[in-house]
Specification:
This protein is an all-alpha fold. Helix content is 58%, strand content 0%. The protein is built from six helices and no strands. The protein has helices spanning 2-7, 9-17, 27-40, 49-67, 78-88, 90-93. The radius of gyration is 39 Å and the shape is elongated.
Length: 109
């Protein structure tokens, strides 16, 4: 331990003679004021905020209306509907054979 102290004795002497840093009593208040001022600076000016919400709503409605099919379902070819059903796996969910009253009858062994 004495060896370590002798190696760094000049440093410890310098640190012992250094004055304590002086911090303003209002340091925390000034920092918080700066942070609040930074948070108030927004990208969008405050008078445009209601219009931004309205524009977003209009864009959502426009996107939804453009995503609706233009043609009626009766004009879509049956082959295309079957292709999409197979691609979506709906052919595996649908009943393949007709269900009649016989399916409710007790099974005979």
């Amino acid at each position: 331990m004495n060896e370590e102290f002798s190696e760094n004795e000049a440093l410890w002497n310098l640190l012992g003679n250094a004055s304590r840093p002086l911090v303003s009593p209002f340091f925390a208040r000034n920092v918080m004021r700066s942070v609040r001022n930074l948070s108030r600076e927004t990208i969008i000016p405050p008078f445009l905020l209601p219009w931004v919400g309205a524009a977003a709503l209009i864009l959502i409605i426009l996107g939804f209306s453009l995503s609706l099919p233009v043609s009626s379902p009766s004009k879509i070819p049956v082959e295309l509907v079957e292709y999409f059903d197979i691609a979506a796996g709906l052919d595996q969910l649908a009943v393949v054979e007709d269900a009649g009253p016989s399916i409710f009858a007790p099974a005979r062994l």
